[in-house]
Design brief:
single chain; disordered N terminus; disordered C terminus
């Protein structure tokens, strides 16, 4: 049995939040053409969804091995100049290009569309804005996890435990997240996202006055 990797007090979500301060959210909002409060609300649901998707993938040995391999290409260097990337010539849209979309597709798979629709309906962003936002966030989340892999010595055996705990933390902070991937098994993921929206809005990022 692989020894349990003890994480620091900062979770993946904590670390991503530290990266996404007011300036970053303002830049992302500008790239989306969206109101910062709506962008923050969408982020507050999108991040736990991404963590949940990663945890779900890593729960199977094949998925954990694939994620471990993918993290070799995500060493966290994106975090060193995130402000520059968001404010560069390409704007935040540079993070939402092909690579972000590809990562997002791997994380959420067939659930990507319905999850994006639900986040959009609950936050007020349109479908294109949500898709771009989530594609921006996916490389950042992977960069944080990749840096943790390097600093904590994570591998395919440890990832399921680490991401499982991250998902549990996200579910505690965002009641209803556990049902994000169709809690009532009716094939409609979007209604589950809407139900969690009320608790997520103003939750992770909305504590500021």
């Amino acid at each position: 049995m692989h020894p349990i990797i003890r994480m620091s007090t900062n979770t993946i979500l904590d670390t991503v939040r530290q990266q996404l301060g007011a300036d970053a959210i303002q830049q992302m909002s500008g790239a989306l053409g969206a109101d910062p409060s709506a962008t923050s609300s969408a982020i507050s649901m999108a991040l736990p969804a991404l963590i949940g998707g990663l945890a779900r993938n890593a729960s199977q040995p094949q998925g954990a091995a694939a994620l471990d391999q993918a993290l070799n290409a995500h060493d966290g260097s994106i975090l060193d100049n995130l402000g520059g990337l968001l404010g560069g010539a390409g704007g935040a849209g540079g993070l939402g290009g092909g690579i972000g979309g590809a990562i997002l597709g791997h994380i959420l798979g067939a659930r990507r569309g319905p999850v994006e629709q639900g986040v959009g309906r609950a936050s007020g962003l349109d479908a294109a804005q949500v898709a771009q936002l989530m594609a921006m966030l996916a490389p950042i989340v992977m960069g944080v996890l990749g840096r943790m892999k390097q600093s904590k010595g994570l591998d395919a055996n440890a990832l399921p435990d680490v991401l499982g705990r991250e998902r549990e933390q996200a579910e505690r902070e965002t009641p209803g997240l556990g049902g994000l991937f169709d809690a009532n098994h009716d094939g409609n993921v979007m209604d589950d996202v809407i139900r969690m929206g009320g608790s997520a809005l103003g939750g992770i990022f909305g504590k500021k006055s």
